[in-house]
Design brief:
Length: about 260
C-alpha cells in the first residue's frame, strides 16, 4: 500500500535526504508487527502488523560535524554562552533532533507519519517504545539480554536483586552510537516478503555477553561497555567527556566551539 509520499522505498529515500549517512545517521526499516511480536503487550504499537516503521540512530561522526555546525549557527555573536544556553532547557541535542523531527513531519505530513522520540514516556511513565528492542528487530544493533534472562537461569535470590538491563552493540560502532527516534508511516504497508536485516551477534560467548552487561549496568558513566565488540569507529575524547558529564554541566565542555 502506498501513500501520497510513495511506497516504502520512496519514503526511506526521502528520509535519508533529511538524515544522510555522511552527516552521521543511520535509518533501518522494520515491520511494526515484527516489533510487536517481541515487545510485549505493554509496549506494542497500535498499528497494522505490516505498517512501515523506521528507526533512526546517530553514529560517532555526528557530534563534531553535524551537531557542532548546527549549534554554532544558532548562536548570535553578541550572546554570552550563559544566555545562549537558556534557549535549550532540555539540552541542545534534544533541540537538534526535535527540529529535525519537525522537518520530517512537515515533509511527509502529520496525517502520514508519527515520530516517537527516544525519551518519550506514556502517562504511566513507561517508555512509548522499546528502542533497543526495535533496533534489534530492525537489524540496527544486536541487543544482548543479561545472561540470566537469556538462559532462563535466574533464581529467586537473583530475581530479588535489582534487575539488570541488557545492552545494544552496533556491528561497526559497538556501543558508540545512540538511538534517537522511530518514524511510523501508518498509511504505508510493507510487502509480505519484506524481511528486516539482522545485526551480527558480535559477542559469541556467555562470558563476553556477561562482561558487556556488567559494564553497562555498573560502569555506564565511564563508557567502558562501548568498547565491547571491537568497534572500528569511536566517540572522540571530547564526545566521551560531554556524554559522561551531567547534562546541566555540559556547556563548559563545548565552550571552545564558540570562541
Amino acid at each position: 500500500m502506498m501513500s501520497e509520499n510513495g511506497g516504502p522505498a520512496d519514503i526511506t529515500d526521502k528520509l535519508r535526504r533529511l538524515f544522510p549517512d555522511q552527516e552521521g545517521f543511520e535509518l533501518h526499516p522494520f515491520k511494526v508487527g515484527s516489533y510487536n511480536a517481541v515487545a510485549g503487550p505493554c509496549f506494542q504499537l497500535p498499528y497494522n502488523e505490516d505498517t512501515l516503521g523506521i528507526i533512526l540512530l546517530n553514529t560517532p561522526h555526528f557530534f563534531e560535524t553535524t551537531f557542532k555546525k548546527w549549534i554554532q549557527m544558532k548562536k548570535k555573536s553578541e550572546e554570552t554562552l550563559e544566555d545562549f544556553a537558556k534557549h535549550f532547557p532540555s539540552g541542545p541535542l534534544s533541540a537538534f533532533f526535535n527540529e529535525r523531527f519537525e522537518e520530517a513531519i512537515q515533509m511527509f505530513g502529520a496525517q502520514e507519519v508519527i515520530v516517537i522520540r527516544d525519551s518519550e514516556l506514556l502517562p504511566n511513565r513507561r517508555p512509548k517504545i522499546l528502542m533497543t528492542t526495535c533496533g534489534h528487530v530492525a537489524g540496527a544493533a544486536f541487543f544482548y539480554h543479561p545472561p540470566e534472562e537469556a538462559l532462563g537461569i535466574a533464581d529467586s535470590a537473583s530475581s530479588a536483586k535489582r534487575r539488570r538491563a541488557g545492552v545494544s552493540l552496533h556491528p561497526k560502532y559497538g556501543g558508540y552510537f545512540a538511538y534517537r527516534g522511530v518514524f511510523v508511516f501508518f498509511n504505508v504497508r510493507l510487502p509480505s516478503d519484506f524481511k528486516e536485516e539482522r545485526a551480527p551477534m558480535l559477542l559469541d560467548t556467555v562470558e563476553k555477553q556477561e562482561e558487556a552487561v556488567r559494564l553497562f549496568n555498573t560502569h555506564w558513566w565511564d563508557g567502558r561497555y562501548r568498547e565491547c565488540g571491537n568497534p572500528v569507529e569511536k566517540y572522540s575524547d571530547l564526545q566521551m567527556k560531554y556524554f559522561s558529564t551531567a547534562p546541566d554541566k555540559r556547556w563548559p565542555v563545548i565552550a571552545h566551539w564558540f570562541e
